[in-house]
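[INFO] parsing input record for Isocitrate lyase
[DEBUG] input buffer:
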Amino acid sequence: MMAKYLDSIYVSGWQCSSTHTSTNEPGPDLADYPYDTVPNKVAHLFLAQQFHDRKQREARMSLPRAARASTPYVDYLRPIIADGDTGFGGVTTTVKLCKLFVERGAAGVHIEDQSSVTKKCGHMAGKVLVSVSEHIDRLVAARLQFDVMGVATVLIARTDAVAANLIQTNVDSRDHPFILGCTNPNLQGRSLAGVLAEATAAGKSGPELEAIENEWISAAKLRTFSECVVEGIRSLSIGEGEKQRRLGEWAKKHDDSNIERRRKMAETQLGLEGLFWDWDLPRTREGFYRFQGSVEAAVVRGRAFSPHADLIWVETSRPDVAECAALAEGVKAAHPEMMLAYNLSPSFNWDASGMTDEAVGEFIPTIARLGFCWQFITLAGFHADALVADTFAKDFARRGMLAYLERIQREERKKKVETLEHQKWSGANYYDRVLKTVQGGISSTAAMAKGNQSTSSLFFIYPLLIFYRETHRRY
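[DEBUG] output buffer:
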């Protein structure tokens, strides 16, 4: 139904998780459903696209030439962009997942930089990132599979670095500037994981453990290493001019993200010997490092992913034009031609965005001018279906068929929605014509006989029948 108006179809992992898992087990978007779930939905939609395209072609060929020319053509074969979540595991799983997507009709796939085992919806808390290098491996694996299959499938790299607060590992130096460390030397030898383990052994649980963790975090004074250095320089007993000089020296080296080299510089060049900063002490009980999510962190990842993807998607927590501008400028400073994607998410409270209705109406073209080439709503269909189902069911329970007549059937007729004749929409006419072609142009078991929703013209049947007979006679 949307193909008449929109350019692409987005297949959401959230919706598949909530309404269409291959095990029929609904749940929140944790990517814990079988990894063929979204490819199955892609196949479902792709086959529907092909069917309605065939049905339309047959119907148009049944029309006289003049009527055919005046009848609008609908491009049902809109490209399907599918949610590949995190790739569902290691490199081989990502390869197999992408193979399924290609085989089942996806024109594009996006893969995000969260950990597979802790994956969350982009608008939920508790997101854990993988290292920059691990996600690049996922993107390379996806592209390799597309190349092996000889297809030009669009690959979208998504990052959740704006709102993430944890990261699996510190192995990649590009992540170092955003990892938080403890700056309180009094906590040396008292890691958070160790403190919580001791409390658990002592019988503590639930709210008590949470209170202990909150107290430890508050005492730790978590900072990035750069923040720690800046505070250290400002606390030195030196002149203001010298402080500014050293701060300037530190800022010049900002592009070098490796913590070990930056720590050495802080000690030997900036006079911060004995500076205390420890990124292992605050690690969670699961072993994750603390991460300071930000637009800057997303830009770093967007730049790193750009050579391996066709578009960059940065998941944001709100619709903010200024934030979009910062993301676009940051990525395009390193990759000027990079295309960007944006999730016009129903998770946003658009009424609370601070924008007027006019600004909301202009949001899409506004950020399009910044380079956001593909903009989509992840769950518009889900919410539309739910709204109609809820309001109709409530009214139907009260007013019966009058509710259906007023809310549904008359509105379909008024707006010329094709499902008004739902048998025809589902292809009954099409298969009646197939049946009559096989049986010489007439059938007593045609589904769309007189008195049903509509009657079928035989205009297309006879040329098809003649073609079939001539071909059969010839061969």
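[INFO] The chain has three domains: 2-166+295-378, 180-290, 417-474.
[INFO] shutting down worker
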